[in-house]
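Late entry, written up from scratch paper. The run itself happened at the end of the previous shift, but nothing got recorded in the book at the time, so transcribing now.
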Amino acid sequence: MRKFMGLLVAALLVLAIAGCNKEPQPQDRFAEYIDLWNKQKFDKMYDYLSKDAKSNITKAEFTNRYQKVYNDLEISNLKIQYKKPKDDKQADKDKARYSFTAKMNSIAGPIEFNYKATLKKEKKNDKSNWFIDWNSGFIFPQLKDGGKIGLNTIKAKRGEILDRYGNSLAANGQVYEVGVVAGDLDNSVLEPLSKLLKMTKEQITKALEASWVKPGMFVPLKKVSMEDKERVAQLVALEPVQTRKVDARVYPYGEAAAHLIGYVGPITAEKLEKLKDKGYTATDVVGVRGLEQVFDERLKGTNGVNITIKNPDGTEETLAEKPVADGKNVKLTIDGDLQQMIFDEMGKESGTAAAMNPVTGETLALVSTPSFDPNQAMLGFSQDEWKKLEKNKRQPLLTRFSRTFVPGSVMKPITAAVGLESGALKPDQGIAINGLKWQKDKSWGGYYVTRVHSGSPINLEKALVYSDNIYFAQSALKIGKDEFTNGLKKFGFETELEYPYPLEPAKIGGLDNDILLADSGYGQGQVQMSVVHLMSAYTPFINNGNMIKPILFVDDKQGQVLKEGVVSPDYAALIAADLRKIVSDPHGTAHAAEMKGVPLAGKTGTAELKQTQGKTGTENGWFVAYRTDKQDLLIAMMVENVQKRGGSKVPVQKVAKVFKKWK
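Output as recorded:
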């Protein structure tokens, strides 16, 4: 037994010694190298290179070259495959050759190639091992004989934003790029150039002293609109100022559609970090606001990329190619001419207006004033210009049609519809109302609901024609908090309106006490609506009680019902008849809009914006109107600060003028 155990130990010792003395195998070494390559550990890969390979490239050069190529080409999903042979017949005493396949994704699409690696047996630190006889062909085979990688980007053409008739609201056009010839700028020219370009002298000097600039080179400084002919002429008159035409985004309707369309600008580092996985690059422009921002991915398109190998003999071959895909056009239901007309009519007023076809739901105009020049915004505001816009008390950067406002008396037809449906209101029932102010009881303290027109009794028709606040305050109390809330929700309150342009949802606010409930009945309290939602809320009076969904795309289905049966057809017709009388009746609040041949129905409103009763506050004037004959145009307008200027008569006159012109 002892003899057997001794033999076993001896055998194991021999095997252990044999294992320790086993020489490294080339297939094992190459497998290790492949593993490092797949993990992109380039610095460690270098240690596997042969002496000859290392004599041609340093470790830093090797590592940096791989990293640069893989970064520039955005190499991902790298997979180097090598089938390890069971018995290495390909290896001789000092050399071994193995085939491998490289697959990867790049910025231009998939790349795949086959290549052969030669391994040499060399001594290192008195120990023999196998080393890869590396050359540039390992990166891409075409590089072995001195080829160079070329990366070409073909910019995608940005899709245009068009109105319903194909007129461009955002187009691909040209502007002048203004610059100077480096080395030729005289100090005497710096001052006038600075003023004309609205750049500081320091900004101009810094651009000219950039590291890439060499004497005689054209250095671009700023882009200028081709419409700014006088300034361009003054710039060209300065030596050595030059201009050249470059592609750029242009906005033909300028300020009239600035809030709706927005503009584009250079992509920021922060934005790029969020969008880099969607194909955006540092040289792209992106939508900064408006529909340019909302539909940026659709408009942008995808840049084409071509990776080539340029051979020493001048020939060129394609390694990978991704074709360019231009952005898609966005065609809106907007009527550019109507957009411009409403904007011009609003003039210097602060406010908002919107227009739609109340039967099809097509949005025909979305206006916000005051506005800004999107062409200049795209070219770049100076710091002073931007500060003036931001600090302007009239808030030209505010997109008013996307915001909610207290609606005032334009809310009353909605309250009437809710009251009729709930049974709380009887259209022919007259309510005794005495005097110009009213309160429910003494629990209201010094708070009263007031009205402008005296009279009693008051029925629904008179309440709408005369815009009687007291009638609708009492109506809201009769309806009750819960029924009133449910009725408003049928009209889409407290629900986000499904609309391409982001809008604030209509708010009911708190109805925690009778005063708030009463005030909400005539459009005060905490009720708020956007002008788009307001338009949609009036469509039941034209469409047999159905609320029509507003749409913004030409391809959208027309006449979609957003809320079915928010009011019965009979009650809808009843309210519609009263809306017509508000304009046609000589005592109606909108009688100033009565015109021969253009029959309008509508409702005025004055929203008082004050903190406490008895103190004078600002007022916003409202008017919603539609044609009763064609029923193809409805306009809602809100003008700010109409106090002491006629209140709602300000928007009434403006809307009437638009209808008169738009026959």
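The chain is about 30% helix and 25% strand.
(Scratch paper discarded after transcription.)
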